[in-house]
Amino acid sequence: MNTRMKKRIAVVAPDLEDLGGVQSIVEMVVRLIEASDRYECKIISLATAASDKLSTRLRSPSSWMRGVRTEVRYWRGRTVIHVGCNWSEFEFMRYRPRPALSALLADCDLVQVIGGFPAWGAVVPASALPVANWAATRCLWERSTLLGVGVSPKVLWRQVMTKIVDRLDARAMAQADKRMVMNPLMREYAVMLAPQRSEDVVYAPPGVDIHWFAPGANNAPLPSVPYVLVVGRLGDSRKNPALLLEAFLRFRKLVASPVRLVLAGATGPDDSFWSQAEQAGVKGEITFHASPDKHALLALYQGATCLALSSNEEGFGMVLVESMACGTPVVATRCGGPEGIVSDGQDGFLVGVGDSDALAKKLAQLFLDSDLRRKMAQCARQTAVQRFSEEVSGNAFFGVWDELTEQNHGE
Fold this sequence. Notes:
Elements: E1 7-14, H1 22-34, E2 39-46, H2 62-66, E3 70-75, E4 78-83, H3 99-105, E5 110-115, E6 131-135, H4 139-142, H5 144-147, H6 153-175, E7 178-181, H7 184-193, E8 201-203, E9 227-231, H8 241-255, E10 260-265, H9 271-279, E11 286-290, H10 294-303, E12 306-309, H11 318-325, E13 330-333, E14 348-351, H12 356-368, H13 370-387, H14 390-410
Parallel strand pairs: 1-2, 1-5, 2-4, 5-6, 6-7, 7-8, 9-10, 9-12, 10-11, 12-13, 13-14
Antiparallel strand pairs: 3-4
């Protein structure tokens, strides 16, 4: 008999030591649970790499007898239990149930899966517990720009693994009790998989702390040279840093005054980006801030004239919301997530994927028209407060959890 005062939610996510947007979402969800008077959480992270030391590996015979293991880790001041998998060299095995994970879920009342794509929900055995599967994109969409690059055994292997994981995406999304999505494309996908259960698809974009991400003081000094800000893992080719540089070169000519491009993130662009910038004579106008802390990042947002996002694919685009909350307008490509955030022409601009000319023109429009920039800044802040605050996002999550735990209790 369960005598706990609070319902326990297993927050299950891919390895939290990896870099990416999932970590921010997990932290937001965990904060919601910690602040609740009716829920508590157990954080579980899953193997994502072929070399995961807690997994069994074909290339490590000693792991065969040892089996899948678990390990207590500490992440952002919290306890996390990391779980390996069987035969981790095969990506699809990372999404399969295993006894070590099932044992950890045994004392929980529901599972909240938070993954980049839905396949992570497949780790929970069918009918074991109520499952809310929250996903940003499909594996196939996320890797679309990587799959066609070259012909090699590694590329072919990635293509095969992606096809298998794409099938797992569909199965895990269709089987979840609640299918939580953060953009219109994923909602269409989820409904298509199980149209008879469209009411179980919940639009649940992540939220930001609008009290922290807020406009700076009106009397704050302006930067000596105005800048376009770009935030993200720019070492990831999906962010399309090459397009960003091309747009910046066009943009400089349009504004015809000193401007800078300020980059910030966990990884910077590769050497080819910097070589091209040097050849174009603009390397001195571009700066990169590696993994800025929250205070430095806030200052970058508040000081920017606007933020640019040049990605080929984004499940959401948290940096857009953070920027908008700071009253900094955005220009983003229509790459999936931004279409659910930005109202084109009102609180920012949307341009086509790969269209450097359009990106440059919209950036220049914001730079050159101070009245437009001021109006968009106000609308951007309003959008963030009304649609993407942690309070608004929390309502969607609590609604799902309350429904699932009540249904499970009734059964």
